[in-house]
Write a structure and sequence with these properties.
Layout: H1 2-5, E1 10-12, E2 24-26, E3 31-33, E4 36-38, E5 40-45, H2 55-64, E6 69-73, H3 76-79, H4 94-103, E7 107-113, H5 142-161, E8 172-177, H6 192-205, E9 212-213, E10 216-218, H7 221-224, E11 235-241, H8 257-269, E12 272-281, H9 314-326, H10 329-334, E13 336-343, E14 346-353, E15 357-364, E16 371-375, E17 378-382, E18 386-390, E19 398-399, E20 407-417, E21 425-427, E22 439-441, H11 447-451, E23 457-466, E24 471-479, E25 483-488, E26 491-497, E27 505-513, E28 516-525, E29 543-549, E30 554-556, E31 562-566, H12 569-573, H13 578-581, E32 587-588, E33 594-599, E34 608-611, H14 618-621, E35 633-636, E36 646-651, E37 662-676, H15 683-686, E38 702-706, E39 713-722, H16 737-745, E40 750-754, E41 771-778
Parallel strand pairs: 5-6, 5-12, 6-7, 7-8, 10-11, 11-12
Antiparallel strand pairs: 1-8, 1-9, 2-3, 3-4, 13-14, 14-15, 15-18, 16-17, 18-19, 20-37, 21-32, 21-33, 22-31, 23-28, 23-31, 24-27, 24-29, 25-26, 25-28, 29-30, 33-36, 34-35, 34-37, 37-41, 38-40, 39-41
């Protein structure tokens, strides 16, 4: 996949206009800021995928992780939901977000798009564009270019008015126009290149100066990226995927900290100068913002998880990597670069600056073998698929395969069970019939063009005359929407759904029709709009065919008269709000489509999640290959909650069981360290002046444990210094392991134990490589 990802073109708008506090330029090595070359680490945090209350904490954690830049997309359909009507309030307040980045001393990169993809519904484009006559998105098309330029100008003007560009004293050093256009350019044929050139010139016209640089997106840009499209431009990695987005029906995509670190180190070793982690914090796709089949939980495996908690060891290992690379900064940005062969699959990337500074990256590309290489008359052991960083060309400061930072375990604890009949009330959604609908057509209308993105739902209703006495028929419906529920004479008869890979699905079920008039009502549902590909404006969804098969005939309903209702009645009445909920009648709990209850906010400050394991749309019944739902817990930011009496309204399409719902809190409950005596000391220790081998515990590998704020180490679940593996004591084990660790850690939030035999009284097995493994509970 990376072979074409490297062809994506990203236009980087450098903030160089005017006279200000920071002049940003570039050359073939890196960005240059006020005359200084920079190696920059960046992380994507999208402001609407979190809350303003969380922005300071997330940015602070990113800074603590060694990042220099926060990158965000800009969401057109969020900011201009209707033509000329702009919204920059609340979670949409991009100015407040960027000012928070500035307040914490970091730089910003804004990717204006305005097509962004980003697993965001309709790729960030507002659906009202679809109704503009003659429009073709992202091509040399005047209607599209007119509206695109208006929006881009609006954002750039807003940034300038708030003095947010670096040249004005603000934090924005980079912007982007368009996104991943190389993926679709060929589809537009002669209309593609002119559009791309127009976009560049349009950005230039906004007086921000636009160099076009072919950047890399993917996981292995150190291996796949051929370099910039000019020797005078720096190598930039705009999307280094820390995991991958997840769709309903798929298992989580896990990417190890070691793999990420290897490819970042390789990219930097090959003269890369800017790496952005996509995502550093994924957050949540609130409301109806997710693209087709995308979970609300976005990049939960990122260094900061969906709730903003540290995902360890990923966050910690990358922090160490950033620190090690920055120890090499002088030779990296101004030294002479050479490459040396160290073996069949091994090489060294060396940077020398005069006779003083030297830095080396020793690479082992062998995926199976640990090898010993000779570099400058010294021996270095390189684990499989790893890179050792030598900031002085002598001493190893970091190896990508040796994780010294802790691991942690995230767990959910039930705060409140909503498990009694008395807590719930129900309201039945009205099933419309043909006669209820004023919108009618003698054809099956396309779903998205009918709903105009005002609702996920579209009712299709028709009538059928049966001249016979009660008889059994077969209802056959094909759909290219995401989910379909069928009702005959108000009674549910069946449902089906598609998948991310299966776009069209068929429902076939037996039905009984009464003599006389019968009503067929079909509920078509979307779970987000498509977000990628050429000619997005031509995409279609909805019900394609409807047939009723009898014993002697098949009736095709495609050309029958159909009535349409956009959305559900409960949506129109806003029964999910306090005021709207009072407009309908609620009954005691039974078997219905909509349920409501009240709950209080959980005590404390830990993140809150709604556990819907027993209920939900088809995403709970839509199981992964392992037979479990893709997502059961849904993030509820504390800023959404009142202290008491929070209204919860559940729309259930599949007769789920609301008594199994609970309000949970999410926290880090366990921390674990697993470090051997062959691991390296923490990079902060390496920075001390005396780097020679000695027996001082401060400069040895360590197990470092840290519970989250408000928690401390209450119990040591396992401890062994010896040859332990997989939480089992081996043949070599120090019997002082547990009391030594308990003395050092119990009751503390943070503790550190060097991997050193003298710390445990004696060497339990001289000459045998040893490991310290500690597993602790945080309470």
């Amino acid at each position: 996949m990376e072979s074409w990802l490297l062809l994506f073109l990203l236009g980087l708008v450098f903030a160089v206009d005017g006279v200000g506090s920071c002049n940003v330029t570039y050359d073939g090595r890196s960005l240059i800021m006020n005359g200084h070359h920079k190696i920059l680490f960046s992380g994507s945090i999208h402001y609407p995928r979190t809350t303003p209350q969380m922005w300071p904490s997330l940015i602070a954690k990113a800074k603590a992780g060694g990042l220099d830049v926060i990158q965000t997309l800009v969401f057109w359909n969020l900011h201009e939901p209707q033509p000329g009507q702009f919204d920059f309030s609340g979670q949409r307040d991009i100015v407040r977000f960027i000012k928070e980045i500035q307040a914490q001393g970091l730089y910003a990169c804004i990717r204006i798009g305005p097509f962004i993809q980003g697993e965001w519904s309709y790729g960030g484009l507002p659906f009202w564009l679809h109704d503009i006559p003659g429009i073709v998105y992202r091509s040399d098309n005047e209607p599209f270019k007119y509206h695109m330029e208006k929006f881009v100008s609006k954002i750039v003007s807003l940034m300038k008015a708030e003095k947010l560009y670096a040249s004005q004293g603000g934090p924005i050093i980079l912007s982007q126009i368009e996104n991943e256009y190389g993926m679709v350019e060929a589809a537009f044929r002669e209309k593609g290149p002119p559009y791309l050139h127009w976009a560049a010139e349009m950005a230039v016209g906004l007086q921000t100066g636009v160099p076009w640089i072919n950047a890399c997106n993917g996981r292995r840009c150190g291996e796949t990226f051929p370099g910039p499209n000019s020797p005078n431009k720096p190598a930039i990695w705009t999307e280094n995927w820390t995991s991958f987005y997840q769709v309903y029906g798929d298992e989580p995509n896990i990417r190890s900290a070691e793999d990420i670190a290897f490819h970042v180190a390789l990219f930097i070793a090959k003269k890369g100068s800017y790496v952005n982690y996509y995502m550093y914090h994924g957050g949540t796709n609130f409301g109806r913002t997710a693209a087709a089949y995308i979970l609300t939980s976005y990049y939960d495996q990122a260094p900061l998880d969906e709730y903003g908690l540290f995902r360890m060891p990923k966050w910690g290992h990358l922090k160490e990597l950033h620190a090690a690379i920055k120890l090499c900064i002088n030779p990296l940005v101004s030294g002479v670069h050479t490459t040396m062969v160290l073996g069949r699959s091994q090489q060294a990337f060396v940077y020398r600056r005069k006779l003083v500074d030297c830095a080396a990256f020793l690479v082992n590309n062998d995926t199976r073998k640990t090898v010993v290489v000779t570099f400058q008359d010294s021996l270095y052991e390189l684990p499989p698929k790893s890179i050792s960083i030598l900031p002085d060309c002598k001493t190893e400061a970091f190896n990508t395969a040796k994780v010294s930072t802790q691991y942690n375990t995230r767990a959910a604890e039930t705060w409140q069970k909503l498990d009694s009949f008395e807590k719930w009330e129900e309201h039945k959604e009205t099933i419309p019939t043909f006669e209820d609908n004023s919108l009618r057509a003698n054809m099956l209308l396309e779903h998205m063009n009918t709903t105009k993105d005002n609702s996920d739902y579209l009712w299709y209703s028709s009538m059928f005359q049966n001249e016979l006495s009660d008889a059994e028929f077969v209802l056959n419906v094909t759909s290219s929407a995401h989910v379909l529920h069928a009702f005959v004479n108000g009674a549910f008869v069946g449902s089906t759904h598609g998948s991310f890979k299966t776009k069209t699905h068929t429902l076939e079920c037996k039905i009984t029709l009464s003599k006389g008039t019968n009503y067929i009502s079909l509920l078509s549902g979307m779970v987000g709009l498509p977000d990628s590909g050429a000619f997005l404006e031509r995409r279609v969804a909805g019900i394609n065919t409807v047939r009723v098969k009898g014993e002697h005939e098949i009736k095709d309903f495609g050309s029958y008269s159909w009535g349409y209702q956009v959305g559900l009645l409960g949506e129109k009445l806003q029964v999910y709000t306090d005021s709207g909920s009072s407009k309908v009648e609620w009954n005691t709990y039974g078997s219905s489509t909509r349920h409501r209850t009240l709950f209080d906010a959980a005590a404390g400050k830990e993140p809150v999640a709604l556990n819907l394991e027993s209920i939900g749309r088809y995403w709970v019944s839509f199981l992964t290959p392992k037979g479990v739902p893709s997502q059961t817990r849904y993030n509820v930011p504390r800023s959404f909650l009142k202290r008491r009496g929070n209204l919860l309204v559940i729309l259930e399409e599949e007769n789920g069981y609301p008594l199994g719902i609970s309000i949970d809190t999410v926290s880090i409950t366990k921390v674990c360290g697993h470090v051997s005596d062959s691991h390296l000391q923490p990079v902060i220790s390496w920075q001390q002046q005396n780097r020679t081998e000695d027996k001082h515990p401060g400069r040895r590998p360590k197990v470092q444990l840290q519970c989250p704020p408000g928690r401390s180490i209450s119990r040591i679940l396992f401890a062994s210094y010896g040859d332990c593996e997989n939480y089992s004591i081996g043949t070599c084990h120090s019997f002082t392991s547990l009391p030594t660790i308990e003395k050092a850690c119990l009751g503390k939030r943070i503790c550190s134990i060097p991997v050193w035999s003298k710390r445990f009284g004696n060497d339990p097995c001289p000459g045998v490589p040893k490991t310290l493994l500690v597993d602790a509970k945080c309470t």
